[in-house]
Give the backbone structure.
Amino acid sequence: MGGVRPLPQGYKPREYEPEILEYWREARIYEKLRRISRDKPKFYFLDGPPYPSSDTPHIGTVWNKVLKDAVIRFWRARGYWVNDQPGYDCHGLPIEVKVEQKLGFSSKKDIEEYGVDKFVEKCREFALSNVESMTRHFEEFGVSMDWDKPYLTLTPEYVQAAWWLVKKADERGLLERGVKVVHWCPRCETTLADYEVSEYSMLTDPSIYVKFPLKERRDHYLLIWTTTPWTLPANVAVMVHPDLEYAWVEAGGERLLIAKSRVEAVMKEAGIREFKVVSIVKGRELEGLEYVHPLLEEVEVQRGLAGAHRVVLSTEYVSAEEGTGLVHCAPGHGEEDYEVGLQYELPIIAPVDDRGFFTHEAGKYAGKYVREANSEIVRDLREKGLLFHEGVLTHRYPICWRCKTPLILRATPQWYIRVAHMKDRFLEEAAKVKWVPDWAGYARFRNWLQGLRDWVISRQRYWGTPVPIWICTSCGHRVVVGSLAELEKLTGRKLDLKDLHRPWIDEITFECPTCRGVMRRIPDVLDVWLDSGVAFYASLGYPLEKDKFEKLWPVDFITEGHDQIAGWFFSLLRCSLIAFNTAPYRVVLMHGFALDERGREMHKSLGNYVAPREVLEFDKGGRDVLRWYVLRNTIWED
């Protein structure tokens, strides 16, 4: 471009904006800004890392980056050196699912047959290629960040920073392994965290009322309602509310137990006009009442269960707002059921495999996909005379956020970090943060923290930060590794590792310090939200390099969309409290979402998004017009 020159009359953005961008590059404007501000006061801005799951960001992501650019430029203009490093969240299902689609894979079996090493390499190539492409898009819009040095969650240094947090949790006595009822994706064959269960689809499911015959009381039945017949093979109890009144209702020569306040509604739905309330009993008087499992002949495992098939009490998980006021309890397929199961020492069975198919424990239904088995289970109940009423219900049902498969709840052994007991500390630290708008903090974020649960960190996948836990194959002793140097010390040798990812890290073994057996790494990878959650220190090289982090921390400012209340905002706070027992940021700005013409959130999966270059081709106003357009709106509104 040869230097600054006056523009002729009439600004032509398509012609001049590329020239201006090129001039900035040639004149090394960004480098000069960094150099002249080097010794000035520091402002720690932290970029929330997008997934490089596509080569093109949609307009909502550009809005996000333009907001950040405005903040960065503002603080530079005020005389500060600004930490303006961009980041990319390179692991996890967003990348894996896209690579699977490219390779034509539909299951983990396909990946295993192809080779985990080759699959992981494809994931890396895909992520890095998209990082390069997305960076070009952001640069085209004049976003002034340190694009030559982004933080990437796939680097060895970053992986070790994530390991360090797991080690810290273990040292604090917070890391545990146990059975947890989790949302499970049968296609991806992995657990999902509560905050990953963010997408829903309208599905039509059976809506059935089932009669559970009482033991030694002919023609007496407990009446339950469910929209998940496939969970009945795992039923071990029926829950009632101790303070509700229940009615024995006579209809068609049978006596049915229903919550008194639900009798009229249930009978109306079933189309039964002739019925009579025979007696009333309090829920607490029903405790211990035994029944015969309605699928006892079909599900062999049900015949040998000790302490099962009885009425138990629950004040939290039973209401008379819908159904019958009696709740079928399957601790292997429900979080609330699991809690009640532990309380009453009920057997916990979950006869479903990783792919969502019934195992041999499900007897007659073994080998069938759970949702497809619904119709057969309903038919069997009908033929046995135990189906009181059947209908259908169209409702919002959770689906996998990446592959859109309907999720199931399933009890599986997982690694988790205990944080539920720290709720007061979370609330206390969140209250110290300046939230913009303020209700994002005192309403939305606070409400989210009220339901704080322990954090399941293990994922049964391939492309991710390996869980740094080695277990002895002989005595079960465990070692949590916090760094590569630590691992080399344990092995007693310099490790010539191609990578810290699977499958190479899986090959590293060492002698058990307790029994001299063989220590092997568990096959799981970490929740990607742990990756992004440690960004406040990992992006600065901590703990391998401490100087920069100790000078800058805590983060002065972050901004992301309102979905990050339960996402990155939460994950950062959780990781910081585990590691440092304090909030990681001072100011949080929550912005809105980009919507389509029908008012729906833009998503690539819906095909309703607008690519940045489409805007430039359609709108002759150019980049600055778009930048001003998104900045002039109330930031936290969609």
